[in-house]
Write a structure and sequence with these properties.
The protein has 6 helices and 27 strands. It is of the alpha/beta class. The protein has 2 domains: 2-47 and 88-386, Pectate Lyase C-like, CATH 2.160.20; 48-80. Mean pLDDT is 85; it is low at 1-64. The structure holds 2-acetamido-2-deoxy-beta-D-glucopyranose (12 copies). One 2-acetamido-2-deoxy-beta-D-glucopyranose binds next to loops. It is an enzyme of class 3 (hydrolase). It catalyses: [(1->4)-alpha-D-galacturonosyl methyl ester](n) + n H2O = [(1->4)-alpha-D-galacturonosyl](n) + n methanol + n H(+).
Length: 394
């Protein structure tokens, strides 16, 4: 934990991030997709519900109240809530009170300990402002949202406000067999300014083994996705951040994900580097952790490294990934510790785009051949045949 705090003391000196711009302003800048914005402006409002004011013809206040309640829930998509089966329990969350729980945490609290059933927490569209924790005693939990642009869990803890980066997550998952589908995890703490200390703000910490994320969004700036430990799968996800925005010691396979840097733009010709996509934390040769990115894309703003060697045996591979020119020509950083050059494993294979030009890469970076890359290219990297269920499985 001290490591993660001190690593920024070195790094933040170089930062040119402007402070105080709210995260959502950055969303606007880097992802000006109209559909996304129109979804975000409903922030906190009933998403699919008619506005109560449509009932102004009612005279009696009590009657009016009832009509408001019934009209808010009239559009509740009952048909989308999966049925309970012998193998599944369903916990329904709607912030307007149209089903059993109004917060995600209340639903998590209702999941029994050590359940062998799959516990589906079905979450209606909306922005849920709460800090959520799934304890180790509750395996087999699924968060099912309605789309990562319409359903989000949002909080704003920082390293300072939560006794360290590791506890700053808006969502913290400590149990195994966790699944999330069609939902976003966001940390909206102020974006760190140059020299800021203690401003790391995690959107989610994934601290259990065998976790899968399908079409999920991860939004933050510094340290967005804490891919802490265990085997994890990310498919079709959108991951945004600036410094070390995917970090941890997980063994994880990222397939067809969009990685979006929101580091400040750097002036033309400047050699300044102000962010890093990954900071993998493998500490010894005995650990089989690593991040493998296959068929992903990297874009956004700033000038960033593909990875920084948070710990000496840091291991990251990018394959078949399209990279824009935001990638610094040297590609990677050994944490200004040349002794790590012998032990880090940083590889690239068949990538494309202006950022994938390897002619100026740091000397320790490997141009992987077919044999070397094979164990990183498919789901066997995370032993998926032992645990990963298809998307259709709840
Ligand atoms: C429940 O699980 C059992 C054992 O894995 C399986 O045979 C059965 O088809 C499942 N039932 C449902 C409704 O999914
Ligand atoms: C609410 O909880 C009750 C009792 O556990 C259950 O019968 C019902 O199906 C739940 N409703 C929803 C929408 O989850
Ligand atoms: C679940 O386990 C935790 C910790 O082991 C315990 O504190 C809690 O009371 C248990 N909850 C239930 C509902 O048994
Ligand atoms: C529940 O979790 C246990 C271990 O955490 C796993 O063996 C089991 O297959 C899981 N059950 C379901 C339905 O996912
Ligand atoms: C939910 O996720 C699945 C699997 O990644 C994807 O195919 C689907 O389009 C998503 N649905 C919505 C509403 O976002
Ligand atoms: C989180 O937001 C609340 C409400 O705006 C604010 O009072 C609090 O200081 C914020 N916390 C941090 C760490 O920024
Ligand atoms: C975090 O706390 C330290 C020590 O109190 C303080 O110097 C620093 O400004 C704080 N950082 C933020 C982002 O609030
Ligand atoms: C990556 O894309 C290639 C070419 O489209 C495809 O053959 C391969 O199956 C994909 N790999 C993964 C892991 O999705
Ligand atoms: C290399 O990447 C291209 C896309 O740029 C893709 O079409 C091709 O299948 C990839 N080759 C291999 C061996 O994965
Ligand atoms: C790669 O970069 C080198 C040196 O900057 C340059 O000479 C070369 O033309 C570039 N290659 C491509 C394919 O852009
Ligand atoms: C791949 O690289 C390794 C290590 O440099 C080498 O031993 C092997 O012969 C190469 N394989 C191919 C197919 O080029
Ligand atoms: C995955 O890659 C491994 C090589 O590391 C290979 O042995 C295995 O057959 C591949 N599996 C699939 C499904 O392609």
């Amino acid at each position: 934990m001290n490591n993660i705090m001190t690593k920024y003391n070195n790094f933040l000196i170089n930062l040119t991030l402007s402070s105080l711009l709210p995260l959502l302003a950055f969303l606007f800048m880097i992802n000006p997709t109209p559909s996304y914005l129109s979804n975000l402006v409903v922030f906190g409002d009933p998403v699919d519900c008619p506005h109560p004011h449509h009932h102004h013809h009612r005279e009696d206040p009590d009657e009016d109240d009832q009509s408001v309640i019934s009209s808010i829930c009239d559009n509740f998509p009952t048909n989308l809530v999966p049925p309970e089966t012998t193998n599944t329990s369903v916990f329904c969350v709607d912030q307007n009170g149209c089903c059993n729980f109004t917060t995600v945490q209340a639903a998590v609290d209702a999941v029994p300990n050590l359940s062998i059933k799959r516990n589906i927490i079905w979450i209606n569209a909306g922005i849920y402002y709460e800090k959520v924790m799934v304890p180790k005693s509750k395996p087999n939990v699924t968060f099912q949202g309605q789309g990562y642009t319409t359903t989000a869990i949002v909080w704003n803890d920082t390293a300072n406000s939560s006794h360290g980066t590791f506890y700053s997550g808006s969502v913290q998952v400590f149990s195994s067999n966790f699944i999330a589908k069609n939902i976003s995890f966001m940390n909206v703490a102020p974006i760190p300014g140059p020299g800021d200390v203690g401003a790391q703000a995690v959107a989610i910490r994934v601290g259990g083994d065998q976790a899968a994320f399908w079409s999920c969004g991860f939004f933050g700036a510094q340290d967005t996705l804490h891919d802490d430990r265990g085997r994890h799968y990310f498919k079709d996800c959108y991951i945004q951040g600036s410094i070390d925005f995917i970090f941890g010691n997980g063994r994880s396979f990222y397939e067809s994900c969009q990685l979006v840097s929101m580091a400040n733009p750097v002036p033309q010709g400047s050699k300044f580097v102000n962010g890093a996509v990954t900071a993998h934390g493998r500490a010894s040769a005995e650990e089989n952790s690593g991040f493998s990115f296959v068929n992903c894309s990297i874009g956004g703003t700033g000038r960033v490294w593909l990875g920084r060697a948070w710990r000496p045996f840091s291991r990251v591979v990018f394959a078949n990934t399209v990279m824009t020119d935001i990638i610094a020509p040297e590609g990677w950083n050994d944490f200004n510790d040349p002794t790590r050059d012998q032990t880090i494993f940083y590889g690239e294979y068949n990538c494309s785009g202006a950022g994938a030009n390897m002619s100026s890469r740091a000397p320790y970076v490997q141009r992987l051949n077919d044999t070397q890359v094979s164990s990183f290219l498919n789901l066997s990297f995370i032993d998926a045949d032992q645990w990963l269920q298809p998307y259709s499985f709840f």
